């Protein structure tokens, strides 16, 4: 737990630093008189618009950091406030004790591998409760510099940039209290204020029934979790000056669903101009798992009502009665029953919904219109995004520890299962793209191919597409590709650089010498923290020593984050993302629906001698496309014939 460490010493690159100061357990909220003349003189007591809060001090890397945990920004969403947008917290009297980690929002724990720390590190580490709308702030204090006359003087105080973290978890789980999200090292090493917030997940944060309820009803409007985030961001913007922060230099950063949330805040009319910049790690709002139509969300909502025995058939005639019933259902029942609508790999039953308000239309339409304020984005992907999800959804096929070979028939079975809602022709196109035609029975390569399918389709290619469309409007986009497998990884070697591996480096965990990172990984962590801080300061992650060109569709430059090497690449995964982002949408447009099962094998090789016909289709292929990939446009021709 972040607040339980005491008397620790951090040894960094051969230098000992007192890691934590004043980390003893603290008592609950106090009722001190806010007008007591001693309170304003205490640097750990800060006056906000909501009232006074008392934090505590920790020290890392020679810098004091004032920490404020569990600051309420909204009324507890309980009773009549369940399934509603958040309501701002009333001002309080006395001094609020902000020294204890807050509750985690209600969710289910992942227990596929009991006792396995690689999984346990992502489970809530504080009590789960619907009373969970709190935020945390880490404020770096000015460094004391020793001058030539041996006097110690503090740095000149100035307004500090702010980085606000939004956690991931598929909009179904996650909590800002995790040890891996501790903002101490990031704040201490960069001099940037770090903040984070809790937001409702699952049905508590995304239940959508609005079209069926009475006009003007406040119940189940969908996207409540996004409104939670927005209210927290507004609280920080309105109060950060009291912590020496600059309200005009707020940058959001988040991973997975957190990245999806960040990208939505940048383009939503609700949060227009609220923040200056955004950093998206392995997640954007246009990813298939990161949003859903109102129709799909409504279907899931009605299913949950039925599963909770609240009679969904009465939603039209007696909506208030149904919602009263839903407010009376215990948290655990809702939390477990919502998973009945899980639809397969990354098919989570909660996600940002096209509600006409927060997300007024399809995310790609918003992106293409470009009707959002001028901003900059830093965006990126990990090398092996797909393996983590592949393991969890097909646990009978794979092992978290060892490589399990995948025969061709099993490979085809997985493709058809993952894309069961696509047409036969679409599935054939995917198989064709991801087949090693030199040896289709390579059962080791098949594991890599199915992992790439999941990583490309759900993460890397949507990220590229978001970056391309953002840059198209003349906005600065910077892309990174994280390629470092942590030496501390507990997952099997076959899984590679998995989803989420970058987070520890961003938050400075390799700097903790009690953990077995090597010196080069510590340097990588410094470089990543520096890039994020530079971006928060200036809108550019590079500096005079680091060449980091902007990313565009024509010049898709990315910066490589790796402990052994760095540099500039192009892509990433340009050929396969050309398939998903350019070719696949055209395939959908040129076919009629045929949802029958795909055959056990794909008989397209006979068309390879017709490659010269590809010139009939205006399809931009990557310069380094393979012979098999150049045959892909034939599928488009075939689809057009089918549609005639």
UniProtKB/TrEMBL annotation:
| Domain of life per record | Eukaryota
Main location (coarse class): other
All residue ranges annotated as the Carboxylesterase type B domain in the record = 44-580
Active-site residues, Swiss-Prot/TrEMBL: 256, 385, 499
Q: Which GO terms describe its biological process?
A: acetylcholine catabolic process in synaptic cleft; choline metabolic process
Enzyme Commission code: 3.1.1.7
- Cleaved signal peptide residues: 1-23
The record's listing under Gene3D superfamilies reads: alpha/beta hydrolase
Q: Mind telling me which Pfam families this protein's record contains?
A: COesterase
Q: Name one GO cellular component term.
A: plasma membrane
MF annotations from Gene Ontology: acetylcholinesterase activity
Q: Which CDD domains match?
A: Esterase_lipase
- UniProt family annotation: Belongs to the type-B carboxylesterase/lipase family.
Q: What is this protein called?
A: Acetylcholinesterase
Q: Which organism is it from?
A: Apolygus lucorum
Taxonomic lineage of the native organism: Eukaryota, Metazoa, Ecdysozoa, Arthropoda, Hexapoda
């Amino acid at each position: 737990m972040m607040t339980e460490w005491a008397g620790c010493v951090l040894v960094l690159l051969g230098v000992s630093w007192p890691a934590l100061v004043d980390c003893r357990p603290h008592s609950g909220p106090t009722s001190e008189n806010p007008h007591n003349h001693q309170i304003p003189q205490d640097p750990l007591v800060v006056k906000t618009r909501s009232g006074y809060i008392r934090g505590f001090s920790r020290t890392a890397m020679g810098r004091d950091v004032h920490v404020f945990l569990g600051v309420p920004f909204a009324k507890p969403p309980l009773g009549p406030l369940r399934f509603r947008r958040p309501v701002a917290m009333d001002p309080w009297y006395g001094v609020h004790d902000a020294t204890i980690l807050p509750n985690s929002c209600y969710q289910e724990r992942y227990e596929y591998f009991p006792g396995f720390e690689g999984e346990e590190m992502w489970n809530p580490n504080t009590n789960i409760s619907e009373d969970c709308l709190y935020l945390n702030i880490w404020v770096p204090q000015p460094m004391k510099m020793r001058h030539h006359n041996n006097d110690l003087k503090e740095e000149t105080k100035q307004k500090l940039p702010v980085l606000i973290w939004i956690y991931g978890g598929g909009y179904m789980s996650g909590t800002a209290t995790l040890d891996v999200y501790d903002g101490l090292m990031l704040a201490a090493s960069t001099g940037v204020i770090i903040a984070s917030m809790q937001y409702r997940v699952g049905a508590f944060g995304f239940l959508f029934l609005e079209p069926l309820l009475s006009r003007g009803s406040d119940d189940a409007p969908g996207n409540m979790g996004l409104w939670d985030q927005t209210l927290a961001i507004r609280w920080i913007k309105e109060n950060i000056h009291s912590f020496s922060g600059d309200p005009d230099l707020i940058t959001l950063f988040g991973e997975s669903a957190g990245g999806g949330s960040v990208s939505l805040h940048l383009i939503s009319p609700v949060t227009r101009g609220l923040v200056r910049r955004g950093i998206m790690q392995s997640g954007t709002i246009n990813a298939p798992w990161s949003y859903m139509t109102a129709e799909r969300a409504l279907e899931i909502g009605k299913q949950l009502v039925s599963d909770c025995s609240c009679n969904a058939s009465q939603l039209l005639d007696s909506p208030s009665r149904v919602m009263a019933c839903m407010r009376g259902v215990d948290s655990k029942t809702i939390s477990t029953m919502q998973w009945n609508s899980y639809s397969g790999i990354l098919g989570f039953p909660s996600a940002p919904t096209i509600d006409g308000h927060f997300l007024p239309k399809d995310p790609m339409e918003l992106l293409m219109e470009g009707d959002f304020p001028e901003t900059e984005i830093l965006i990126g992907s990990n090398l092996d995004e797909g393996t983590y999800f592949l393991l969890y959804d097909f646990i009978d096929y794979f092992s978290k520890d060892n490589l399990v070979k995948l025969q061709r028939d099993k490979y085809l079975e997985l493709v058809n299962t993952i894309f069961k809602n696509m047409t036969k022709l679409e599935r054939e196109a995917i198989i064709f793209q991801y087949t090693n035609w030199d040896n289709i029975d390579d059962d080791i390569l098949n594991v890599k191919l199915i992992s790439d399918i999941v990583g490309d389709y759900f993460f890397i290619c949507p990220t590229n597409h978001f970056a391309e469309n953002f840059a198209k409007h003349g906005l600065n986009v910077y892309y990174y590709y994280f390629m470092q497998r942590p030496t501390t990884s507990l997952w099997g070697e076959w899984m590679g650089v998995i989803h989420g591996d970058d987070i520890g480096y961003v938050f400075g965990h390799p700097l903790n010498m009690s953990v077995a990172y090597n010196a080069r990984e510590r340097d990588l962590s410094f470089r990543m923290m520096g890039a994020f801080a530079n971006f928060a300061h200036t809108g550019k992650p590079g500096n005079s020593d680091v060449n980091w060109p902007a990313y565009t569709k024509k010049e898709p430059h990315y910066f490589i984050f790796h402990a052994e090497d760095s540099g500039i690449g192009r892509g990433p995964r340009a050929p396969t993302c050309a398939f998903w982002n350019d070719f696949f949408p055209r395939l959908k447009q040129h076919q009629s629906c045929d949802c029958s099962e795909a055959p056990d094998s794909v008989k397209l090789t006979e068309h390879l001698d017709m490659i010269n016909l590809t010139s009939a289709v205006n399809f931009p292929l990557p310069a380094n496309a393979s012979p098999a990939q150049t045959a892909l446009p034939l599928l488009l021709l075939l689809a057009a014939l089918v549609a005639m």
